[in-house]
Amino acid sequence: MTMRLIAGLALLLSGLASETAAQASGRPVCAARDIIVNTLANRFGETAVSLGLGPGNRVVEVFASEETGTWTITVTSVNGTTCLVASGDSYMALAPMPEGEPL
Q1: How does strand 47-53 pair with strand 30-32?
Q2: What is the predicted pLDDT for the residue at 97?
Q3: pTM confidence score
Q4: Long-range pairs for 67-71 at CB < 8 Å and ≥24 separation?
C-alpha cells in the first residue's frame, strides 16, 4: 500500500506515465504545499494531525485519515515547497499521555 500511495501521488503531481516510471526516477515527490494538502485531502481523506519544526526551519507534518487508515509525513521548506517523506496505512490515533507520565 505504501509504494502505491507514493506512486499514485507521484503520478498525480508530476504527470509520470506509470508506477514503474515513478519508482525508477528516484526523485522525491514535491510540489507547492496547497497542491500536496489538497491531494491528500481529496484522494485519501487525510488531514493534518500533528506538526513540528525540523532542521533548517522546515515544517514536518503528519497527515492521516481515521476512516481510510492512511497516513503521510511531509516536510515543507521555507520557500513553501512540500515533499512527501513517508506514507502508509493502519493509522491509529493515540490518547495523550497524562502529565508527569514517563514515555
Answers
A1: unpaired
A2: 77
A3: 0.70
A4: 68/44, 70/1, 70/5, 70/44, 70/45, 70/46, 71/46
Half-sphere exposure of 18 (CA within 13 A, CB side): 3
In whole angstroms, give the CA distance from residue 67 to residue 31.
25
Helix%, strand%, coil% for the chain, nearest 5:
35, 30, 35
Q: Could you identify the residue written with the cell 491531494?
A: 39
- What pLDDT is attached to residue 95? 83
Do residues 40 and 46 lie in contact, with contact meaning Cβ atoms separated by under 8 Å? yes
With the C-alpha atoms ordered 12, 81, 53, 22, is the resulting torsion angle positive or negative? positive
Nearest to 79, CA basis, from 42, 36, 31: 31
Per-residue pLDDT reduced to its tens digit, 37-72: 999 999 999 999 999 999 999 999 999 999 999 999
